[in-house]
Amino acid sequence: QVQLVESGGGSVQAGGFLRLSCAASGYTYSGPCMGWFRQAPGKEREGVAVIGGGSTYYADSVKDRFTISQDNAKITVYLEMNSLNPEDTAMYYCAAGPAHACWGWYSGYDMEYWGKGTLVTISS
User: Fold this and answer.
1) How far is residue 22 CA from its own chain's centroid?
2) Using the 8-state DSSP alphabet, how is residue 109 labeled?
3) What is the distance of C-alpha 40 from the center of its chain?
4) Pairwise CA distance, residues 91 & 20, whole Å
5) In angstroms, rounded to a whole number, what is the distance separating the alpha carbons of residues 99 and 47?
6) CA distance 81 to 64
7) 8: left (phi over 0), alpha (psi -120 to 50) or beta
8) 43: Cβ–Cβ under 8 A, 6 or more apart, which residues?
């Protein structure tokens, strides 16, 4: 059974830093696409960043502020978030899918597994 467990969310002031982690287990993808998505209250889910096939992809809104990485075993994926602002407040979800899920990744349509989310709250 595939499990994705997020951690690292919390409340910080604008300009602060958070590091999210996602521990994955149980999937058998070779070269998976893994990443982070978020959903703010009253808004649709949006892509934040994904990593797969040796490449990383970022939403324009987080580029140069967030960094996605993963361990060599591709079991844990991280999201380092700098210069946080109130617009980053959302539930952040980890997701995993086959390699092609990183193509046209923003919607998360091809991601097959999702974590339960970790809440990030940024105060001004």
Assistant:
1) 8
2) T
3) 14
4) 11
5) 16
6) 10
7) left
8) 90
Most distant pair of Cα atoms in the chain: their distance: 42
Q: Report residue 105 as tokens.
A: 């990744």
Task: Go through 75-101 and write b for each residue having 16 or more CB atoms within 10 A of its CB, e for each that does not.
Answer: ebbbbebeebeeebbbbbbbbbbbeeb
d(CA 48, CA 55): 14
What would the pLDDT profile of 19-36 be if each residue is shown by its tens digit? 999 999 887 777 789 999
**Within its chain, how far is the Cα of 53 from the centroid?**
16
Residue 85, CB-side half-sphere exposure with 13 Å CA sphere: 4
Question: Which structure tokens are listed for 112?
Answer: 């097959």
Local structure of 101: helix, strand or coil? helix
Q: What is the pLDDT of residues 32-73, one digit of tens each?
A: 899 999 999 999 999 999 999 889 999 999 999 999 999 877
Give, in order, the Cα–Cα distances in Å from 35 to each of 1, 46, 50, 124: 19, 11, 4, 27
